[in-house]
Write a structure and sequence with these properties.
The protein has 393 residues and is mainly β. Helix content is 1%, strand content 52%.
């Protein structure tokens, strides 16, 4: 029996455009660039640390990991021309013999390496097309006396220039181990910081988001009118995400007026650099569906690839698209099983990738084309970790 389609009242501004997922890439596909796939699994489900590149024009795939070599922690540059990752060499006894940051182009050719240091925790993002932001193991204490582990290193691998950032921001809530947070989410220029803000509402300890100006060293605003929650914040709040140009960020707002509330209102919002907030979705309590925990901006800053989750059924998740200009949400009726991944966009903002974890240790990568309106499986048992501009030949 076919699953009945969800219904959405007009005020939700949701339209249904059901796409049938093709098992093969259609002839009408007009893809560009190179997709990075990581972690192949063979038929018995055993993990093999391999990394592949797929040229989306030709469909040609290339394995770029060598023998006893493993790549992880991928971050693609803002111009989509380079990818940085952690490169590890392992001997026959499974001991690490080499550990470094590597920078490679869209052909998989490593252009530069620098040794990985003991107090580096993770690659987080590019701050421009030359510098990287890393999570840094340098414990600090905030001005309010709270211990915090969030510290950062800005590194130029070419020159070894370094800058340590210790986010001693007011009312700082350390979220280093929560939902992918590393304590603070910076814009690409490192001039704005979104972080967990803790405050007291009467006798209740509450959590929201704060927006900090790192140049003027002052608080711009807090978001308690759009996000206010009790201590479950750490497990319920997904990562706010900056648009590629740093002009705005999106966050999933939710408001719980009291602990007795059975349901919260959950919407997607965007805020600009001055803290002006604009509501993007309008679900309210009119439907059981709500914006999911994973989402991402298109490179042109217009669209947000997202999911719709059913409040009453955690296994009912659909792929969707939000047009931030019209505030229209398109439900593609494509079910996603397992933990939804952060969608990965093509460099031209016309396609994005999601992962359907349809069985234990098995998954398929689905491409959605928002212009031509199709969906197709492009890979099995790998994880997409980036989409780059292909090298000119």
């Amino acid at each position: 029996m076919a699953t009945p389609l969800p219904t959405y009242p007009p005020e939700t501004q949701v339209k249904i455009q059901c796409l049938k997922v093709s098992p093969e890439f259609p002839d009408i596909a007009d893809s560009i660039g190179t997709v990075i796939f990581d972690g192949r699994q063979i038929s018995n489900g055993r993990y093999i640390p391999e990394t592949f590149l797929r040229e989306m024009v030709t469909g040609h795939s290339l394995k770029i990991t060598g023998e006893n070599e493993s790549f992880n922690n991928f971050v693609v540059s803002l111009n989509k021309n380079m990818v940085a990752f952690n490169r590890v060499m392992i001997n026959a006894n499974d001991r690490i013999t080499q550990n470094e940051i590597a920078l490679a182009d869209a052909a998989g050719q490593i252009q530069m390496t620098t040794p990985w240091e003991a107090d580096w925790l993770a690659l987080l993002q590019w701050t421009d097309d030359q510098r990287l932001l890393l999570a840094y193991d340098q414990p600090i204490t905030t001005t309010d006396g709270y211990p915090a582990q969030a510290s950062y290193l800005v590194l130029n691998p070419a020159t070894d220039d370094r800058q340590i950032i210790s986010p001693d921001y007011p009312n700082f809530l350390d979220l280093t181990n929560a939902w992918g947070w590393q304590g603070v989410v910076y814009d690409p220029a490192l001039t704005r910081a979104v972080y967990g803000w803790q405050y007291m509402d009467g006798d209740e300890e509450m959590y929201t988001l704060g927006l900090w100006d790192t140049e003027r060293h002052q608080l711009i605003t807090t978001m308690e009118d759009y996000y206010a929650y009790y201590p479950v914040f750490k497990s319920e709040t997904p990562l706010p995400r900056w648009a590629l140009d740093g002009s705005k960020f999106a966050f999933r707002g939710q408001f719980l007026a009291s602990r007795a509330d059975e349901r919260v209102t959950i919407e997607l919002y965007q805020a600009d650099r001055d803290g002006q907030v604009n509501q993007l979705t309008h679900f309210g309590l009119a439907t059981s569906y709500l914006p999911g925990r994973s989402f991402s901006w298109s490179p042109d800053g217009r669209y947000i690839a997202m999911y719709l989750e059913d409040w009453y059924d955690v296994n009912e998740t659909h792929v969707a698209l939000l047009d931030t200009e019209t505030q229209t949400v398109t439900d593609y009726c494509i079910p996603i099983r397992g933990m939804p991944s952060v969608p990965i966009w093509s460099p031209d903002s016309t396609q994005f990738l999601v992962v359907d974890r349809y069985a234990k240790k098995h998954q398929r990568v689905i491409l959605i084309d928002i212009v031509q309106g199709f969906a197709a499986v492009i890979a099995e048992d790998v994880e997409p970790v980036g989409w780059m501009v292909a090298l000119e030949k």
